[in-house]
């Protein structure tokens, strides 16, 4: 079994996924944020089978159509499932280690890209998939607006974005259940994270948890039709966005 890497790196996720792939089944990241206590994130979570996935993710896979772009694909569990169903899938991730893992696991089309990489616009997709709270990849509300503009260049006519996100306003409830926000501060769903795996400390990054109403506002402003397909008990929802003129 390969040892855990010990050098400083900006890709703790990639190292954890690679270690898990090579047999270190207890590989676990530590996730730090500015809204909650540190949390463990087992690498095994990224290697789930279909029936280990939450219902919203399985529902999203059922809604896929045509050529699929899997954004923030991690270890490729969604891409592999879609491949097994006959879909053409391109899986991308900003983690170089995650890209290596997906290639090793048999994802046929894999690329190392940021979600706003201009190189992606050379091709068109019928479905853009953003699961595991994947809408968070946009980082901030400004990032959401920019991504929605960018995504129109990626979508084929009639194409769709299938994404999950969560409302985390419950983190700001006082003892009486009233919401306490700093109305002059950033949107409460804009969270800053860092990840650590062993000695691997990643750079801080922004992640967006968009409440359904604000997501709808931004999507409609960008010219998308919005269809909420489901919600779970953790206040995570699945949404389909379709370009209104698509």
UniProtKB/TrEMBL annotation:
<keyword id="KW-0808">Transferase</keyword>
<protein>
    <submittedName>
        <fullName>Class I SAM-dependent methyltransferase</fullName>
    </submittedName>
</protein>
<keyword id="KW-0489">Methyltransferase</keyword>
<dbReference type="Pfam" id="PF13489">
    <property type="entry name" value="Methyltransf_23"/>
</dbReference>
<dbReference type="GO" id="GO:0008168">
    <property type="term" value="F:methyltransferase activity"/>
</dbReference>
<dbReference type="InterPro" id="IPR029063">
    <property type="entry name" value="SAM-dependent_MTases_sf"/>
</dbReference>
<dbReference type="GO" id="GO:0032259">
    <property type="term" value="P:methylation"/>
</dbReference>
